[in-house]
């Protein structure tokens, strides 16, 4: 995981000194030793934060393109959850819309999948809009999975150090 994080792209933005410019995914497959039959998969994903146009005014073209790609993949993920919300097990899940959702395909189509979302938010007043948006996003994940009984979900609350 250290190697993966070392290779992860980060740059300074107006919001953060070291803003991740990509998502980070670590997948562990648990297989039976003799048959190599897959018994489970653990996907740990650190999503890059979304950025609004107003947050990127002084960014160069490359940073704006990165922000656009991050936002597209987060929207694709949101659309997958929305499809599950509206159609349950038989719904068409648009997981092919981004590389992120393709990697997470099993989480959407496997009825025994379990999803846990940890939402990291800022206590700063200046970040209130982002915090509310993040909490709404996490709430959508929780509602989708609990109400449709597609998978169990655990809602984990993040408390920043010092609070």
UniProtKB/TrEMBL annotation:
PROSITE patterns: KINESIN_MOTOR_1, KINESIN_MOTOR_2
Gene Ontology MF term list: ATP binding; microtubule binding; microtubule motor activity
Ranges of residues in domain Kinesin motor: 1-144
One GO location term (cellular component): microtubule
Subcellular location per the Swiss-Prot or TrEMBL entry: Cytoplasm, Cytoskeleton
InterPro entries per UniProt: Kinesin-like_fam, Kinesin_motor_CS, Kinesin_motor_dom, Kinesin_motor_dom_sf, P-loop_NTPase
SMART domains to which the protein is assigned, alphabetical: KISc (SM00129)
Principal cellular location given in the protein's record: cytoplasm
Keywords assigned: ATP-binding, Cytoplasm, Cytoskeleton, Microtubule, Motor protein, Nucleotide-binding
Family: Belongs to the TRAFAC class myosin-kinesin ATPase superfamily. Kinesin family.
Stated name of the protein: Kinesin motor domain-containing protein
Organism: Aphanomyces astaci (Crayfish plague agent)
């Amino acid at each position: 995981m250290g190697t993966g994080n070392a290779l992860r792209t980060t740059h300074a933005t107006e919001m953060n000194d070291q803003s991740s410019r990509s998502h980070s995914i670590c997948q562990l497959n648990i297989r039976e030793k003799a048959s190599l039959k897959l018994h489970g998969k653990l996907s740990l994903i650190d999503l890059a934060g979304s950025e609004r146009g107003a947050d990127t005014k002084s960014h160069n073209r490359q940073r704006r393109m990165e922000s656009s790609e991050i936002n597209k993949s987060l929207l694709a993920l949101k659309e997958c959850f929305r499809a599950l919300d509206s159609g349950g097990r038989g719904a068409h899940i648009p997981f092919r819309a981004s590389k992120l959702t393709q990697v997470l395909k099993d989480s959407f189509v496997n009825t025994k999948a379990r999803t846990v979302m940890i939402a990291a938010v800022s206590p700063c007043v200046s970040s209130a809009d982002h915090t509310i948006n993040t909490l709404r996003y996490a709430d959508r994940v929780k509602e989708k999975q609990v109400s449709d009984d597609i998978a169990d979900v655990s809602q984990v609350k993040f408390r920043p150090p010092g609070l």
